[in-house]
Amino acid sequence: MLELIRVAGSAEALRLRLMLRRQLGRVGQAVVAVIIALFTFGLLELAAVVALEPLVGLLGALLLVAAINLLVIGLLLWLASRGQPGRPEEQALEVRREAVTSLRRAGVLMTAMQWGWRMTRSRRR
Questions:
Q1: DSSP secondary structure string, 71-113?
Q2: In the chain, where the domains are located
Q3: Which of 104, 102, 87, 101 has its CA nearest to residue 14?
Q4: pLDDT tens-digit map of 43-53
Q5: Smaller CB count within 10 Å for the chain: N or C?
Q6: CA–CA separation, 48 vs 54, rounded Å?
């Protein structure tokens, strides 16, 4: 039973490390998206407004550039949010579940054995 507890703990620790690595990757992607968004608002807005002003006027150029910037930001944030658990993380979770299931079965079995032992001892008295 101690081996099952050790296996369950190791599997859970591995799963949590893998999940943390995945989450940090997602956060990194979101940070990159924010940095790109800031540069986008600074550089592209200025260049695009200057280029579009003769065609649609100053206000139209500003609105058009802002809409395009928001689309880029939305796309990058969407990409950052679609991370899925990898196969090693799923396998570690499965090992932990199997170990916990085995522990529960063993616990029920041990409880039944203890109850049976007590009943047998109480009848002998």
A1: HHHHHHHHHHHT----HHHHHHHHHHHHHHHHHHHHHHHHHHH
A2: 2-124
A3: 87
A4: 878 998 999 99
A5: C
A6: 11
Residue 86 identity:
G
Q: Ramachandran region of residue 57, left (φ > 0), alpha (ψ -120 to 50) or beta?
A: left
- Alpha carbon 82 to chain centroid, angstroms: 9
**Residue 58: CB partners within 8 Å, gap ≥ 6?**
49
Residue 57, Cβ density class (10 Å: 0-12 exposed, 13-18 middle, ≥19 buried): exposed
In sequence order, what are the residues at sequence separation of 6 or more whose Cβ sits closer than 8 angstroms to the Cβ of residue 53?
Answer: 61
